[in-house]
Amino acid sequence: HFHVKKSFRHGDFNVRAKSQGGHLSRQVEIDVQSNKPDPNQVQVAPGNTQALLDAVKTAPNGATLNLSGTYNVSSATGAQQSDAGIVINKDLTLAGGTIQSDGSDTVIYVNRGSTLTLDGGINITNGYADEGAGIHNEGNLIIKNALVYGNKAKEGGKGAGIYTAESGVVTMYV
Question: What DSSP line would sit under 39-83, residue for residue?
């Protein structure tokens, strides 16, 4: 079995060294862990829509936004483009929680060249739009563990839940 020989903190890292074996044969294991939070894992305040919008804008490309609670969005809160509550302009994962529109706009708009992954049991609901009431996708949409429900296309519209433009790709894991 392993015996802890040395454990210390150095700057932003915890370092622990262990050894095993006798004097003729020795196995050494060194474990180094960062003390800094992972910038690609962003915790968003439960149900705080402004915190969600800020996180979408400021999170690094490739980040995961961990959500809980319900976030109410509209084109007025998003004030970005395409009458959507949230516009994705980079690669992001949204995990957990519920994002809902006030019933007058697309909930999420994914731009060309961007990838949105939905995971962690996230819910996208209550959108209302001509194309893509829940999600309007012109980029790359990956659905792993998500529900897109309760969205409505306007009369003659397309894609109540998800509309994918010619430039878009959807990948679903079931």
Answer: TTEEEPPTT-HHHHHHHHHHSPTTEEEE--SEEEE-HHHH-SSTT
